[in-house]
Amino acid sequence: MNARTDLDLSHLWMPFTANKQFKAQPRMLTAAKGMYYTSGDGRQVMDGTAGLWCVNAGHGRPEIAEAIAAQAQSLDYAPGFQLAHPGAFEAATAVAAFMPEGLDRIFFTNSGSESVDTALKIALAYHRARGDGQRTRLIGRERGYHGVGFGGISVGGIVANRKTFSGALLPAVDHLPHTHNLEQNAFSRGQPAWGEHLADELERLVTLHDASTIAAVIVEPMAGSTGVLIPPKGYLQRLREITAKHGILLIFDEVITAFGRLGRNTASEYFGVTPDLITMAKGISNAAVPAGAVAVKREVHDAIVNGVAGGIEFFHGYTYSAHPLATAAIVATLNIYQRDQVFANADALAKTFEDAAHALKDAPHVADIRNLGLVAGIELRSREGAIGARAAEVFQKCFDHGLMVRYTGDTIAVSPPLIINAEEIGELFARIRKVLTSVA
Ligand code: PXG
Ligand code: PLP
Fold first, then answer.
1. How far does CA 369 lie from the centroid of its chain?
2. Among 319, 320, 321, which residue has the most ligand 2 atoms within 8 Å of its CB, making it the best to mutate?
3. pTM over 0.85
């Protein structure tokens, strides 16, 4: 896979990677354009995952590269604490225009993990500013992925990401049950019909802990990393009703769903449910520069910022919050989304994508197919005593046959750049079928 033999692979400790295995058989990427990566051995590999759910406008957009280059030449860095640069305000205004009505106060970060920790801190600061400082409990959900910060893994629900650190997680946390149920919902197209009542588990947690101790609930409106879990019909609406009733903030972690994945600006807009905070990253800059943000309801922002007479209102921020290269990339990216109607393309192709995904129903090993917008999860039956082994082989074989997919457990996840066309959708699922037919 690696055409270069001069590389020393020993020094790099790779993230979320089987390092020893990878280094024995590296899969290198050396270039990317549009829908395709170039592999280390010079092959074209279709990007079935938009990188890691982030290159929504496709690879190698010249306008973004040029904006970053020009910014690096004119102002490489500006401190963001007590100082600023115009691009920071420009980018915040541009991001706010993509957010639901009212969520127009923007705090910049550099990643989804930082966005999550920032949002959790904003929730605590909000209640404290209102004299409700005993509201400190945070509620996440089983199988949730909220990045890898200590806050994010505490509210997150992925065992492998938590167990090593279990003694150091945030103390006041509880979890809702996840919504995955194959008996009830296998092969649902779009939102499953069964499961709205699972949101009522929040009432149980409120009864257990008392609403006066709960600061916020955080969920992915559509859970991506854990294997594509689509919210049951009515579920998010119900969560919104219960949180509102009890004065609990609702945070949607839209690191994957914001910027067009469901054919709308946000999942919030798609589902018609407006949370109090939205975390984002990935597609915000088309992944050309690390960037993230939290969009905050004006009342939440105002409670904190107007809650003190003077001085710093919120003791939080990153050296690289609103980094000039990031804000340049964000503005250029959002311009492309708008000009090229990238999300409208995703929306227009969602049905074609759904049909192509569900056509795999009769392929070998398939236990379930789930889809929404330009996301599909294809759950495979696990091999006896070897969860994940079959999907790992599918991933490797897809890559060998010119298609990049993701896998979690035995679920294959597909989430292509939103610039994909109908023909490429056909090709993508045809390659998956071929591979499924070839694995044991
Ligand atoms: N929240 C959600 C909902 C995410 O999906 C994060 C937070 C963390 O973002 P950062 O930028 O800190 O990684 C994510 C990230 C996968 C995969 O294969 C998904 C993510 C990251 C890497 C791989 O599903 N999501
Ligand atoms: N550690 C040390 C010693 C620092 O000085 C800083 C920032 O000044 C940080 C960590 C945090 O880095 P960042 O702001 O890039 O998150």
1. 20
2. 319
3. yes
